[in-house]
Structure formats: C-alpha cells, structure tokens
Amino acid sequence: MTEGARELGAASMLYVEDEADARQMVTRMLAMNYPMLEVYVAENGLAAVELYREHKTDIVMTDINMPLMDGIRMSREIKTINPAVTIIAVTAHSDTSYLLSAIEIGVHNYVLKPLNYQELFSVLDKVLEQIALKRLVERQHRRLEENERQLAVAQRIARLGSWQQDLDSGTMSWSEELYRICGVEPGTVTPSPSTFLERFLPEDRDLVLKTLWGTGEAGLTEPLFCSVLRPDGSTRIVRLEAEAVVEACGSRTIVGTCHDVTELKRAEEQVRTLTGELERRVEQRTSLLQATVSELESFSYFVSHDLRAPVARLEGYCSALLEDCGTCGHADCRQYAERAGLVVQQIKLIMDAFNSLTHLARCTLSIADADLSGIARTVASDLSATEPGRVVEVVIAEGMRVNGDPALLKKALEHLLHNAWKFTSKTERPRIEIGVMYREEGPVYFVRDNGVGFNMNYADKLFKPFQTIHTPGEFGWSGTGIGLATVHSIVLRHGGRIWAEGEVGEGATFYFTLAENPESGSYLKQ
C-alpha cells in the first residue's frame, strides 16, 4: 500500500465475484495488504446492487461474466445510484464491445484474469490515491465554503463590506455586505469605479476619487470618513480603508473595506452632547457650591472677627460685674455674674468649634501614606495618659495603611476614640476596638466600643453640628457637639462615607470608608 493510500484512512470496497475460491483468495489478500479497507462481498451482480444500495462503498471491483446480472449491467445500475463511484473491472474478456460498454458507463480501471496481484495492487493503489486526493479537495472546498460563510456572517454582523479592484484591467468586485451597506440587493449593480463613486454623496465623490485613485499610488494612508447615499434617500456614514497589493507576478490589486459606522458616529455625537451637558451642569453646581462655601467662609470670618469683639467686651463686663458683686449685698448677684461668665466661655468655645468645622471646607489636603494603626495607637496612648488609673482594653488591628491627610485622619480618630473612651466610663470592663473589614467595594474601617450605645432612632442626629443624643454633664461632657460632624467632614474630604450602628446598653460601632486615592485641594478656587 502506498503512502497516499495510508493517508486516506478508512475506505470501503464492494467485491463482486461468482467463483467462491477466487472470491476467498482475493478477500484474504486485500485484508493482508489493505487493513484499513473495509470489504463487502457479493457473488453476483443482482446481490451486489442491493448490497451497494445499503453501504454506498467508495470502490466497486467486479467480475464481468456472472449469472443473474453481468458486471456491465450491474455497473450501469450502480452508476445510476452514484455516478462518482470508482469501478474496477476484473475480466478475462478482451472483446472490444465489452470494453466499449465499460468505458461508456465510466469504468476506466481494468485487471485481467488470471489475477496478477502486483497488477491488482498497483491499480488499487492508484484508485485509493485518487480517492484520497478527492477527499482532500472536498475537505478543502468545505473549509473554504465555511470560511466564506463565516466571513460573510462576520461582515454582516460588523457591517463591514469589502471590495477589490484589479488596477491593470480595472475590473472590480464587491462583497454582499457592501451591496447591503449601499442599500441595494447583491448583484443588482455592476461593480466598477464609477458605480462605486455613485454610491457616495455628491460632495464626497471628489474626495473619494482623489484619495483612492488621484495620488498616483492607489490606496489610503489613513481611514477616510464619508457618507453613502442610498436609493431610498437615506444616508450612512462609512469608514473607507484600502491597501494596494502587488503580486509576485507583477499584477497590482487594491483591496478595500467599507465599514458602516453610522450608529457609532451617532453614539459619539450623543456622548459629546451628554458630556457637554454634564460639564455644564457640573460647572453650574460647582459654581453654586463655591458660592455656598464662599458665603460660609464670609460667615465664618464674621464669627471669627466681627463677633469676637462684642463677646470680648461682654466677657469684660462679666469680670467687672464679678468684682462689683464682692461688695454688693445682694445674695444672688455673684451667682448671676458667674453664670454669665460661663455662658460667655461657652459662646467662645462654640465660635472656635464653628471655625474649626468650616476650616475643613477650605483647607487643602496633604495626601500621603498614612499609618492608621500607628495613629490610633498614639491617640489611645494620649487618652490613657489623661486617666492613668483607668483600665481600658484597647485592641488595634495591625497594618492599616491608607492614602490621606495624616493630620486630619488623626483628628478624626481623636474624636472617635475620645467618644468611645468617654461613653465606656461607666462600663465595668471597657473595651475599644479599632479594626478593618474587607468588603467587595473595599476596606471598611471601624471603631467599636461596649459603652452605653445609643438609640438608632436618633442616628440621623449623630453627624449634625451642635446636636447631641446624650445629656450634657451625664458623662462629664462639656464639649460643643461638633466632634462627629468634624469626623463626617474629614471622611467626606477623603472621598468616603461614615455611618454608625448601636444599641442602648450594648455599645456602638462607627464605620467609615476612605477613597483609595482621594483628591487633594480645596472646595474653593485658590
């Protein structure tokens, strides 16, 4: 068996012979020399036709002179079923009429009796190689058809037409998708440079002509956007690209594409419109924000400067009143003066707190790598130093590092830990934990305590300035009520958010997030 026959793989043969001994001998020799060949056997032409109808073998090898139906009639019947079948005639006849009849029905392979196996194998190798070549061509043809089908579908999905022109002969061909992009049925327009140019808007035709063929070098150095005018009057925006190809034989061809980008261009225009509208709204809202913050800054300036002078004079009057009350005989005079002095001090504290809060809207963040764990340890140590005799279990997670303003983050932790320290003062075994949880959206930091907690119904008051949910003096509190508001402002400046959960008698937990790369700068124009 030749190499071509081996590469064929499995093949099948119908062997027709009325002599039993010859049939058995040939079948055995075929099995020995062609193990991949599946052989079916029939003893006469009539049985062979029925067997061929069932198995449709690749090869039929038949004797000519047989009972019931001779090899010529049988071959004619089988050729009717499958005109492409290969028939090998094994015969002792050399009669011209037999040979002409065999040739007439398409029998072109002969082996004379008595059989010479070398001659038989030579013919069989030739036939098998022909079948192998035929199968290879069929496979390549099917693959080519599949590639063409996939290309046509891909062009239709991508709305990408293609065209080709022989620059020597001027002949041109278009893909089916190019016809569809132009709004005509495939094959209804004869492809040519002139009909190609007619597809475009009149104002674009000169540009296409000069760009594609007017430079002396056919092709495009960069994509060309223009508009196709369809027969129904509608237009499509297309992107043209072309490249000149020179074959080894010297023939020149230009191959191009025509991509329908109408929807893409419309979407780009919508994006530009929406982007412009968004930028306008952002600019408007930014202006409003800047105006609001400017007003806040003006009010802060008023509190910081214009209001301080009257408060200072009021403080002086209270001091003078206290001195005068020393010689006054009225029992309540000194008490009233002292209370007035305390109110003045409270006013000064509120003014300082307000200035501190509004400063956060104006200050520029100094973004750097901040060790949140280290900052928490420092703050906790400072709190312990204020009450050396108090035992509080403080647990701080290691490795909490963030991008942020270290000074402001320290201020935020000071307020959070000071609250936790304060509201665990009546707890038997106070515990404060500073840690982090990792969620899908990013790390969530928290400060948790087992102190008095709070009623969640009042949670919306926690981060508002000058509002408290505990009675002043209940925990030695003498602040101004802006601690959590300050924390809220700092977290917002770092692109995060803050919220709290608590239960009366069970403690509270404050959660906050920070942007991975917060923006520096101020709310106000510098």
Strand order, largest beta sheet: 2-1-3-4-5
Number of strands: 17
Average pLDDT rating: 82
Low-confidence stretches: none
The CATH topology name of the largest domain reads Heat Shock Protein 90
Rg (CA only): 49 Å
The shape, in one word, is elongated
Residue share in β-strands? 15-25%
Distance between the termini: 91 Å
Oligomer: single chain
The CATH class of the largest domain, by name, is Alpha Beta
Written overview of the protein:
The chain is α/β, with parallel strands linked by helices and 526 residues long. It folds into four domains: 3-138, 3-Layer(aba) Sandwich (Rossmann fold); 159-260, 2-Layer Sandwich (Beta-Lactamase), CATH 3.30.450; 269-362; 368-512, Heat Shock Protein 90 (2-Layer Sandwich), CATH 3.30.565. Helix content is 48%, strand content 20%. The chain has a five-stranded parallel sheet with strand order 2-1-3-4-5. A five-stranded antiparallel sheet has the order 7-6-10-9-8, with helices on both faces. The chain has a five-stranded mixed sheet with strand order 12-14-15-17-16. Helix 4 links the parallel strand 3 (59-63) and strand 4.
